[in-house]
Design the sequence.
């Protein structure tokens, strides 16, 4: 049920871009800090894609990701007056997103491995269409991400999906680069094994 | 190191995350070990799938929903923060008041160094007795009552009470001197 909904929501539609000039971004941020509501909306528009998509990858659920995204921007609004304008907003947003997703994950009931296996069987009978196959592979990786520990998943999402450097990830998570490397390597090996097992079972 | 121990290093190496000091040795090993070459190939393939998630696009309506939810929640957020500000101001005011009272007023009756305010009878000298017998109305004797000390010494007495009273029907003036020279309190009793 959940996977069908996600496939529908996450395969099409325009991608919000954040390629505007950094000077403009700084001006908009300054106005937002001064209490300009329209400017704050612009800040939301500029960053909502990264926040929502990273929350989705961390939580594996679009509804929770939407809740997380809302919470992140409300926190931004609440603490915007404290934000140092000389710093980049995005790392701060990632850090808050990670924390909010951890809170949400702590509150919700944990999905057992048995549930994950049942979902795999339920979605395993798709047609040979290339697009369907690609969606299936994505779904497989999302499930593999769910099986990782929280630290491994967070490091992997930020490094491999969001494309941040190891140093940036370490800064966001407040840990050392070597710790992040350990989480990333363990996560990659686990995902590779999960994909390998699944493909063997299917063949 | 055997091949299974090198898996995590290979997982870092395929994305260029391996520190330079360990890269040379691993590259050399990969050149000769077919098992590790195969592992590196499979992990590259799974990494392609992981990175494919970055292409996920969210429908514009989902963003609109989130944006509306955020913007609709903002006034409530503002009210809430305003309420907190008032609450903190109220608490701060009460605390300030308590502090001022604690500083100015005696905390306990035992902190007051002076208790006696009643005039102590004074022995009149012979001259004064004579004058009083003469009953001169314009020179009524003036008794200044100095505050007496309690037998028990006060450790934290921040106040000194001096009472002055004229024998004539003038009001009793009580002066409370605090440690703060700017704060002096008078009581007038008819």
Sequence:
């Amino acid at each position: 049920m959940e996977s069908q909904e996600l496939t529908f929501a996450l395969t099409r539609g325009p991608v919000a871009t954040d390629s505007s000039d950094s000077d403009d971004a700084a001006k908009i941020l300054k106005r937002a800090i001064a209490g300009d509501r329209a400017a704050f909306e612009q800040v939301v528009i500029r960053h909502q894609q990264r926040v929502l998509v990273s929350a989705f990858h961390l939580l594996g659920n679009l509804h929770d990701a939407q809740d997380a995204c809302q919470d992140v921007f409300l926190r931004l609004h609440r603490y915007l007056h404290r934000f140092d304008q000389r710093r980049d907003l995005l790392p701060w947003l990632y850090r808050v997103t990670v924390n909010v997703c951890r809170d949400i994950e702590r509150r919700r009931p944990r999905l057992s491995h048995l549930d994950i296996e049942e979902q795999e069987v339920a979605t395993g009978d798709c047609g040979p269409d290339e697009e369907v196959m690609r969606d299936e592979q994505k779904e497989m990786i999302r499930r593999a991400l769910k099986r990782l520990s929280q630290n491994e998943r967070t490091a992997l999402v930020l490094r491999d999906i969001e494309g941040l450097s190891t140093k940036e990830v370490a800064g966001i998570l407040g840990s050392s680069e070597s710790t992040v490397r350990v989480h990333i390597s363990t996560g990659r090996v686990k995902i590779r094994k999960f994909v390998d097992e699944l493909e063997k079972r299917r063949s | 190191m055997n091949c299974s121990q090198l898996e995590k290093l290979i997982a870092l190496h395929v994305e260029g995350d391996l520190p330079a000091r360990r890269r040379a040795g691993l590259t050399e090993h990969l050149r000769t070990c077919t098992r590790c070459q195969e592992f590196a190939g499979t992990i590259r393939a799974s990494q392609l799938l992981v990175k494919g998630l970055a292409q996920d696009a969210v429908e514009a309506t989902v963003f609109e929903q989130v944006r509306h939810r955020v913007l609709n929640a903002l006034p409530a957020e503002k009210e809430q923060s305003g309420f907190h500000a008032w609450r903190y101001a109220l608490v701060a005011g009460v605390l300030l008041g308590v502090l001022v009272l604690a500083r100015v007023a005696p905390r306990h009756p035992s902190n007051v160094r002076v208790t006696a305010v009643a005039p102590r009878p004074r022995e009149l000298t012979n001259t004064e007795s004579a004058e009083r017998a003469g009953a001169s109305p314009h020179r009524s004797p003036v008794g200044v009552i100095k505050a007496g000390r309690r037998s028990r010494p006060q450790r934290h007495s921040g106040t000194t009470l001096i009472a002055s009273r004229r024998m004539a029907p003038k009001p009793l003036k009580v002066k409370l001197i605090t440690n703060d020279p700017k704060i002096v309190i008078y009581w007038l009793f008819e």
Notes: Residues 126 and 133 of chain A are 8 Å apart (CA to CA).
